[in-house]
Specification:
Length: 276
């Protein structure tokens, strides 16, 4: 493997991880602002003019005192360690999730290069895993899986496999359709039986996107793994954290975890299962 990849992968993984923190924090707020604007338009109301808010502006600042984060304070992981997890101005605590996300993204990228080598497959896998990381955390925070990420992820999978990067194009297209329809069927079956919604439409789109990347043959494994991980964590939260049984739990993080496992070890797991 090229030495450039060895050094560049973790470095750029950390830098992109820092940007992912911005997406995780700001995208749900951007969606909320857009919904408020649409509702106001339907009511023929005018919202008061507010400052621009997107992934680029305003500059990142401490939520407690408003201190703008300088370039030296925005170095992935190192700045958080140097500041001892506190704002340099007001000494308010800075969440440890920021360096954790940056490190997690770097580790995922290292895993992609380790598994696929210095190839286009590794680059595609980096994009895939970073999107799953963002979706998992946004879903944890808000129980939302934004179309702004799930739909481009789906089409990116179709595009990648147009050139047979991971699977054949027919397998990718069938995977996208079957991924969406499988959870859509579960959703409506559960709703007709219980009168309740068991999951959101974002889960359908996320599984469709993973089907587009990994193919229809990987869908049973994805559903099995995500259900298994979700059941284990759900039971643990109920027993250990005294979480109420009626509190809804996002399914997106478990789908995302299953997607990462399937990307790296899906074929081996499928062969093991078929051998049994």
């Amino acid at each position: 493997m090229s030495e450039v990849w060895v050094f560049a992968t973790p470095l750029f993984g950390l830098v992109v991880g820092s940007f992912l923190n911005v997406v995780i924090h700001r995208l749900p707020k951007m969606m909320e602002n857009e919904w408020n604007a649409q509702c106001a338009e339907l009511r023929n109301e005018e919202l008061p003019e507010s400052p621009r808010y997107n992934l680029a502006v305003p500059r990142s600042a401490c939520p407690h005192c408003g201190h703008q984060i300088t370039a030296a304070e925005n170095i992935p992981v190192l700045s958080w360690l140097f500041l001892r997890g506190k704002c340099s101005a007001c000494k308010a605590p800075i969440s440890a999730r920021y360096p954790i996300v940056e490190t997690a993204n770097a580790l995922l990228w290292i895993g992609c290069v380790w598994h696929f080598g210095a190839t286009a497959q590794a680059v595609g896998a980096m994009f895939f895993t970073s999107c799953l990381l963002v979706l998992a955390l946004i879903d944890c925070d808000t129980t939302l899986l934004p179309d702004d990420i799930t739909l481009p992820l789906l089409w990116a999978g179709i595009l990648a496999n147009l050139f047979g990067l991971y699977i054949s194009l027919p397998s990718a297209v069938i995977g996208a359709m079957a991924g969406y329809l499988s959870l859509w069927s579960v959703y409506w079956s559960f709703k007709l039986l219980t009168g309740k919604e068991g999951m959101g439409y974002g889960d359908f789109k996320l599984l469709a996107a993973m089907g587009a990347w990994l193919g229809w043959k990987m869908l049973p494994l994805l559903i099995l793994l995500s259900s298994l991980v979700g059941a284990i964590i759900g039971i643990a939260l109920i027993i250990l954290a005294k979480r109420g049984k009626d509190i809804p739990m996002p399914f997106g993080p478990y789908l995302a975890a299953a997607g990462v496992i399937a990307l790296f070890w899906g074929n081996d797991l499928n062969r093991f299962y078929l051998n049994l």
